[in-house]
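In pairs, describe these two lines:
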Amino acid sequence: MSFESEKQFNDFQHFARGLRRSGEFSIRESNILEQCGTAMMELHLGTRKPQDETEKVFLEQLHSDDVITDPNAKIFKKYLQVIQPRRLHRLCSVGADDEMGATDFGGGSEDSSID
C-alpha cells in the first residue's frame, strides 16, 4: 500500500485545533491527510524514497507546474498552499510623516485668508 506510515499526521503549528476543524479541507481530504500526510511530507522533504509507482507519480506531479491529476498530490498541494504565509497589501503608507515632514492641510496658517 502506498503512503504507509505508523504516525497520524497533525500540524498543530498551523492548525491548532486540528486539520478537521480548520475549515480548509473537506472531511475526505482531512482523512487522507491524517492517514497519509506523514508519508507525503517525508516524500516532499526528501527524507523518504518512493516505494512504488504511485509515490513516484505523486512526487513528479507535486514538483511540476503541470496540471495535477493524482488526487493525493492535489490534496497535499492544497495543504502546502494553505500553510504558506499570506501576503498583505496595504493601500496606505505607514510612517510617511516621518520621512516627508508634517504638512498642515487645515486652515491654521496665517497667510491664507478668504475675503
